[in-house]
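Task 17 of the worksheet. Students: predict the tertiary structure of the chain below and write it out as structure tokens. Keep your answer in the requested format; marks are given for formatting as well as content.
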Amino acid sequence: MRPHSTPITRPTPAERVRSILHAAHSMTVISDGRHSEVRRVGGTDATGHIHLHAPADGTPAPPHARLPIRLELTDIAPTAVRDRLRARVTLTGLLTAPYSDEAPRSTCMEFGQALLEDGSGRHFVTPDELGAAVPDPLARSEADMLTHLVDSHRELVPLLVRLARPQPERGLLRAVPLAMDRYGVTLRLEYPTTHSDVRLPFARPIADLDQAGSRIRGLLAAARRASHHNRLLA
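Model answer:
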């Protein structure tokens, strides 16, 4: 449980994993020496045909009836930033029957653990942590919202940079929205030879998708009130 006295400005590793699974367009399934590429079909996420459940209680199944399985997913930024790979997720577990991507029903997978690898390091997520996490309400709409911001309201991005703390270094070439979740927006600041990310938290976390517009307008209003003026972007 997060301390109530600590402001929440970003999702936990478990929340990120849950959201990536919820919005996944594709994944790689590795089991019994086979690699299967699974893509989103019928409007469901790519993991929709694999049912995760906690390790079974009681007497374990015979070893020969349990086949290791690994799911690999990548989280790619929807905007044209440098280094678009935002995260990798690997889930490991066991099956009681060989995996088939042509099975008519959902495959039951006994979930062992998840590994999230991103710019902040490696984070292991347990079954209990993943079970307690909920998908971000923006997970499936984030790509459309970020590309709309870049394509239709590009002039607002330099305004958001006014909220960056610490202020951008000299030589900034451009700022591009990298990510958005219920807690805030992340901008990627690109320089001639490097880049860095800055987090712009919302005043309050988003509870449902309908609140996204008002939270963005809140950031823009705060940026207009900012005491300093960003002169680094044209």
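Marker's comment: The mean pLDDT is 89. Residues 212-225 form the longest helix (14 residues).
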